[in-house]
Amino acid sequence: MGSLPDLCVPATSIADWQALLDLAASGRWRYEYAEGDVAIRLPRAEAVFSRPPDAETASLRVWPAPHILAIFRFYAPTQIDFDVDLREIQGQHGLDVFCAFLKAIGQRLGKPVLMDAEGGNPHSHPVLGYRVEDDQVVVVNGPLTPPG
């Protein structure tokens, strides 16, 4: 797996990104949006994806708990990519917080949230994920083809 697994929500749109930004800004978790190393006010998703190609890298940092950080990267509107450091998820409480975080994202978007090994092919063989049809985070025992 590596300590920084790749997480994604496949088959997304700018509207899905906006729903994620709205979820982050809902007050449920602490968050910070930055372009390069400069933290700025959270923009609309359309503004993030309409920035020039040579603009500073945009990221959204979300803390579902004080000791757990998820970093979202704005690579493309068609997939929401983020990572977490598994070393920050300690004990059953940490795992419960992490799973609740994935579930909150999946429920808001109505889409699966998939976790692959660090550096793997995107959602080629997820090992854990929020499954919409089950409305829960599950261990994946085989390839999971996302809808779309």
Q: What is the mean pLDDT?
A: 91
The number of distinct helices, counting runs of at least 4 residues, comes to 3
The share of residues in helices is: 10-25%
What order do the strands of the largest sheet run in, or round the barrel if closed? Answer: 3-2-4-5-6-1-7-8-9
- Largest sheet, described in full? 9 strands, antiparallel
The succession of helices and strands, N to C, reads EHEEHEEEHEEE
Instruction: Give the strand tally.
Output: 9
**Structure classification:** alpha+beta
Using the alpha-carbon principal axes, give the shape: globular
What quaternary form is this? single chain
Radius of gyration equals 15 Å
Give the amount of beta strand, in percent: 25-35%
Structure, described:
With 148 residues, this protein is an alpha+beta fold. Helix 1 (14-24) crosses helix 3. The protein is globular and about 40 Å long. The chain starts with 5 loop residues before the first strand and ends in a 9-residue tail after the last strand. It has a 9-stranded antiparallel beta sheet, covered by helices on one side. Helices cover 24% and strands 33% of the residues. 26% of the residues are buried. The chain contains 3 helices and 9 strands; from the N terminus they run E-H-E-E-H-E-E-E-H-E-E-E.
